[in-house]
Amino acid sequence: xxxxxxxxxxxxxxxxxxxxxxxxxxxxxxxxxxxxxxxxxxxxxxxxxxxxxxxxxxxxxxxxxxxxxxxxxxxxxxxxxxxxxxxxxxxxxxxxxxxxxxxxxxxxxxxxxxxxxxxxxxxxxxxxxxxxxxxxxxxxxxxxxxxxxxxxxxxxxxxxxxxxxxxxxxxxxxxxxxxxxxxxxxxxxxxxxxxxxxxxxxxxxxxxxxxxxxxxxxxxxxxxxxxxxxxxxxxxxxxxxxxxxxxxxxxxxxxxxxxxxxxxxxxxxxxxxxxxxxxxxxxxxxxxxxxxxxxxxxxxxxxxxxxxxxxxxxxxxxxxxxxxxxxxxxxx
Length: 332
Known about the structure:
The protein is mainly α. Among the domains are: 1-72, no CATH class; 219-332, no CATH class. It has helices at residues 8-16, 22-36, 39-43, 45-51, 55-66, 80-87, 91-110, 119-129, 134-146, 151-164, 169-181, 186-198, 204-214, 220-232, 237-270, 277-282, 322-325, and strands at residues 298-300, 307-309. Strands 1-2 form a two-stranded antiparallel ribbon. β1 (298-300) and β2 form a beta hairpin. α9 runs antiparallel to α10 (151-164). It is elongated.
């Protein structure tokens, strides 16, 4: 039986010669070729003969794309329409190829400019080819929310996953946390987490988180617990590194909250603010000098009276509803 992959160049050659939309299709076809580079596509004799008339045009288009602005999509981000046109039903295979490209894209930008502008589109394309790729939904939704600072895209991707697998508790759990922590939609968070907790495979901590949200207990310890759970269930080492950095900042936020409560108790008891952490220890409000995740002590700023780290490291800061204020570009 003839290899169906060997038929792709013929379809691609005809695509390049069709109508007034040739330039647009050439661009997208070029993106496809440069990203997937299948051996069957490159070395098949039939393929070579079929694309020979378009070789020069393809090389020219690739050169133009290589010199384009950084705002252009990666060359391995083709249109879903044209991927399906040449995939001949092998959607799972192409989803896997694009998935590895997505991991490479995230890793490269995490180690360099931290510019993840095309991550959401790559994740959307990968899951469109394989709507049940759980590892893609979970990785992408986490990185979009915590690292790329695009919680709306994360929630949209998880909504897509929920539509594909409504009985999978983790999608509801991840989206519910997004709604609560990033988008400040406690009503939607409670709905998602309550639904997740009701699913038969959901662990007990989901019900615990849902109950805390319903009780309106919102604190940094919740973020610490959530990040610990994400790290434990993430296999990609680059993702683990990124999440561990966020975890350290979440722990700083948690510790500062605890110290601020101790200061409140001190004020209630002594009718004045403490000037140092030592005074909190001497009064029995805390047991010892706490250290931040970087091994440095917390101090009370003599000018402002605020608790901060001696190392200068800061906790997680999220200024408001991204859906309403557009503040997703701010640090959190």
